[in-house]
Structure formats: C-alpha cells, structure tokens
Amino acid sequence: MKTKKMTFGAMCLALSLLLPQVFHFIGLQQAGAVFLPMHIPVFIGGMLLGPIYGLFLGIFAPLTSFVVTGMPSADRVIFMMSELATYGVMSGLLFHQFHFSKKKLGSLSALVISMLAGRLVYGLVISIGTYLFQIPLGGIQAVIMATMTGVPGIVIQLLFVPTIVTIIDRGGYFNEPEVITRKA
Question: Where are the transmembrane segments (predicted)?
C-alpha cells in the first residue's frame, strides 16, 4: 500500500509540474493564474492520499516548479506554497478523517471547503508579509483579484476534481487486496 501511495504521490507531483507547462505551451498569457493547473493534482492527491501527502504535495509542487521552470515567480512561490499546502491538508483531512468520502457529494464538499481555507491562508500570509516586511503585496485586494482571475480554473476544479477522485476511489486502487486463506 505504501508503494502505491508513494507512486501516486509522485505522479501527482509530476502532473503539478506538467499541467502548467501544457497551458503555457499553448501560448496563453497568465495561464497559470487563470486556469490554476497546479492546484488540481494537489487536491486529488490530498483527497486520495491523505493530509500528510497533501501537505507535502502542496509544499513541493510550487517549490519544485519554481526550481525547474522559474514559475511561479520568486515573489509568489511562498504564497503558493502556503495556499497549496492548505489545499492538500484540508482536502485530505476532510476526505479521510472527517469521512467526506462516505457522504454524497463528499469530494465536492471537501473541495469547496478546502478552496475557501486555502484562499483564507493565502490572504493571511499576504497580510503577514505586508505587515512584517512592509512590502506592498496588495492585501485583501490581491486575494480578491487572484480569486476573480482564477474563476475559470475554479470551475475546472469543481467539474473535474470530484469526478476524478470518485472514479479512482470507487475503482478501488487504494483498497488492500483481500487475503484468501484456505481452510485445511
């Protein structure tokens, strides 16, 4: 089971690097800010792998992308790490520990709550950065602008993340195989 989780986590990390590149390759300006492609594998990984894997995916997806591709920019990477780490932890906690996986529309509910929590943390980190370092980061206006710019990506997430999570979860990929014992 641990090998499956690590493999799936590595795939989610790889997708979090690949998906933004696909959008940039198409030639869309600010495609990452509009379509939020890095968020999708973090949400999926958090829900299917749990909060610890979600935390690490949320931290390492933007950090690895920055090191490899230079995106997100250096001035944004810390904010994205805090936001995506929150997405990964919250989606994992809600889906596993709070048993949203067993509720009707549980993955959608976990996604929406995680989105709100992530944006809240994003706003808090921006506010703290503005206060501590006297850097004009835009405060709450920056969070509102980022949310408005990302509406197409939010719609994509709402459509695809619950569907993908439900298909993989119901498909039994992470279920332990039953041990068949022979009676003597």
Answer: 41-65, 77-98, 110-133, 145-168
What type of residue sits at position 47?
A: M
The two tokens of residue 25 are 């390759």
Q: Cα separation of 98 and 83, whole Å?
A: 21
For residue 41, which amino acid is it? Answer: P
Question: Which of these, 58, 141, 133, 143, lies nearest to 93 by C-alpha position?
Answer: 58
Token code pair at residue 158: 């709402």
Q: What is the pLDDT of residues 23-51, one digit of tens each?
A: 888 877 788 899 999 999 999 999 999 99
b (16+ CB within 10 A) / e for 27-45: eeeebbebbbbbbbbbbbb
Nearest one of 8, 80, 77 to 47, comparing CA atoms: 8
Domains within the chain, CATH numbers bracketed: 2-171 (1.10.1760.20)
